[in-house]
Amino acid sequence: MTLQDQIQQLAKDARDASRIMAQVPTTVKNHLLQQMADALVASGAALIEENARDLATGREKGLSEAMIDRLRLDEGRIRGMADGLHEVAELPDPVGEVTGMWRRPNGIQVGRMRIPLGVIGIIYESRPNVTADAAGLCLKSGNAVVLRGGSEAIHSNRAIAAILKKELAAMGLPAGALQLVSTTDRAAVTELLKQEQFIDLIIPRGGEGLIRFVSENSRIPVIKHYKGVCHTFVDADADLDMAEKICINAKVQRPGVCNAMETLLIHRDCAEAFVPRIARVLGALGVELRGCAETCRLAPAATPAQEEDWGAEYLDLILAVRVVDSLDAAISHIQEYSSLHTEVIVTRDYPNSQRFLREINSSVVMINASSRFSDGNQFGLGAEIGISTTKLHSFGPMGLEDLTTRKFIVFGDGQVRE
Amino acid sequence: MTLQDQIQQLAKDARDASRIMAQVPTTVKNHLLQQMADALVASGAALIEENARDLATGREKGLSEAMIDRLRLDEGRIRGMADGLHEVAELPDPVGEVTGMWRRPNGIQVGRMRIPLGVIGIIYESRPNVTADAAGLCLKSGNAVVLRGGSEAIHSNRAIAAILKKELAAMGLPAGALQLVSTTDRAAVTELLKQEQFIDLIIPRGGEGLIRFVSENSRIPVIKHYKGVCHTFVDADADLDMAEKICINAKVQRPGVCNAMETLLIHRDCAEAFVPRIARVLGALGVELRGCAETCRLAPAATPAQEEDWGAEYLDLILAVRVVDSLDAAISHIQEYSSLHTEVIVTRDYPNSQRFLREINSSVVMINASSRFSDGNQFGLGAEIGISTTKLHSFGPMGLEDLTTRKFIVFGDGQVRE
């Protein structure tokens, strides 16, 4: 079989399996996820052995220690995958929910019922735990899933997928509902992205390069986010203690993630008071500031920001800082440079809080809270399958519900159209 | 300016205008649509004159009478466009609706607020009334719109767009919120489909060729439906009077539209009674039947169906008919050949009705009603911008709400993440 035929067959098998998975009762799906969790823990030693092969290859290829660490499976991480599956098992099942039902003048009743999307393709890099996490979320929401992990984790991914598939089969469910593309040939990704007949949604997870490749080559709808350039705006009359606490948390608590703050905007009317203060405290925490002229005047430790600093996703202890003349200027700056991820205003002014809330149309808009809350778990959606900064289908952190769609259902008693 | 620069500028202008449109109060948007409606009627004579140029060119080019008729504007059709705008003005505004708000253990409140998508591109063929209809729906939902109509209607479309833009400007709203691609150069479509930086959604409306071209060449998300192959399944114990009434309505009332029935499935247990009866009555109404062997045995007037008849969208007085052994066989047939548009069961059996409802995951599933109801207006969504048979974002008939998305909103009082 050619690679093309293989991938098409795999996608078709997933589509066929998805029709069965769409009908599986919640209790059965929950039991499946629990069995999968137990099987991962029980097979821990074998998993660690397969993972060691990936680690050895990674070292030969000269992967960085950070990359090797992301790749590593140990007992704790295997337990973490299992816990994740148990958590998803406990989440409410979105499938079958009827969201609204109304009667039309002719007596037909029209409603909308939540159904699985069908087949979801996940294309991801390095971390092998995504194999179990994504499978759990897709299966719980009644979908089939096609997984394509990074070549550096191929042995780990194959071992995890084999364990999970065995549990599907043991419960009499179609093994085709969980497919791993087990070749490391890159052409397989391109082929996968052509299977619009069988796959309903592609979610790429990884670096910007992977995501651009997927979205430029896919005929299947893609939900993605390229990067998070999160802004915090400290308004003229902000509580400066609160502003300091929020800024420290948003920048320093975990700088390498997409909901960390990358740009701080400060209203001119509080700049004299706030810029030196935040520069001092962030400086002490090892943060490098890149500021506008006014920022550099008020905080001499800051280096002058270049145009490319506005819009930069540092993912590091670096912060762009700009003093702005007004709320309008802050909104304009954000609209110009935002990645549509998360924006925060710190203010005591009610009208300003409401204007910011309405006029900023990023996927998450916050008043007086740290951007680090922008996360499916923190929002109470349960486990997160990803985050979307494209507006179609989902916008912001995505949970189980985002892996479903709604069909219309109509109850009649013989009505015909006049 | 090159064509590429022109299209990019137009898309960027629409994006800039969309930020203003997103904030326009409902009353102002409603007034705008009413002014537009009145302006169309007041400019009727000029519109008819411009339309005459398109009709003349169409005749020169040898367009069919059906095409010429679709292209024609007269007083009644101009009044129809105006009525459509008035209707949309009266629909509730989805923008700003908060769909759920909940408190997290740390005290932050998380909710979701409906916002416009931003910029919507509509690519359509021949009927010039789409220019006004689509503009009305996009503007009412707080979006900017980029319109690209067919070259055969270019003078009509330019005239309509100019009238509508004038009303935007007269109310102090940005004229960039309504853009018509006024060149007939086909390369403009390809350029438009590259503006993913500025356009949030593309809706193609027209023949399957247009829709395939758009979806294969777009980097922007596309919502579409290729065709409607709607099935009606007459179950073993259906009320045959009801079944007859529904089948006649679904096939004959307006055969040229996507929600007309194209395939009729009949349970073997009622085939002896129903096949000759429905063949007689549909035959008398001029419907040609293409049947399976059993259908042809029971209704000698039917011609044998070929494999391509299952899955055919005739849009004509032709019907594929198949006798099936069971509900399962009906469901399997539909899953195999469905276009995911609309499927109907006629039955008196409660468990069968529920199985059909759950197991068929087309965008509309009906019990005991004509597929001709599958329509945004009939469902009570108000005017329809289109129908989606892709599952992402919207599935089924689409109204104003489908031109919006939801952002997360968070109210805190200084919370930071532990």
From TrEMBL, chains A, B:
Annotated pathway: Amino-acid biosynthesis; L-proline biosynthesis; L-glutamate 5-semialdehyde from L-glutamate: step 2/2
Domain Aldehyde dehydrogenase: residue ranges: 4-308
Similarity-based family: Belongs to the gamma-glutamyl phosphate reductase family.
Enzyme type, top EC level: oxidoreductase
Function summary: Catalyzes the NADPH-dependent reduction of L-glutamate 5-phosphate into L-glutamate 5-semialdehyde and phosphate. The product spontaneously undergoes cyclization to form 1-pyrroline-5-carboxylate.
Gene Ontology CC terms: cytoplasm
Name assigned to this protein: Gamma-glutamyl phosphate reductase
Gene Ontology molecular function: glutamate-5-semialdehyde dehydrogenase activity; NADP binding
UniProt keyword Nucleotide-binding, yes or no: no
Keywords: Amino-acid biosynthesis, Cytoplasm, NADP, Oxidoreductase, Proline biosynthesis
Primary localization class, coarse: cytoplasm
Catalytic activity, as annotated: L-glutamate 5-semialdehyde + phosphate + NADP(+) = L-glutamyl 5-phosphate + NADPH + H(+)
Places the protein is found: Cytoplasm
InterPro entries found in the cross-reference section: Ald_DH/histidinol_DH (IPR016161), Ald_DH_C (IPR016163), Ald_DH_N (IPR016162), Aldehyde_DH_dom (IPR015590), G-glutamylP_reductase_CS (IPR020593), Glu-5-SA_DH (IPR012134), GPR_dom (IPR000965)
Superkingdom assignment: Bacteria
Record has Oxidoreductase as a keyword: yes
GO biological process, one term: L-proline biosynthetic process
EC number, as in UniProt: 1.2.1.41
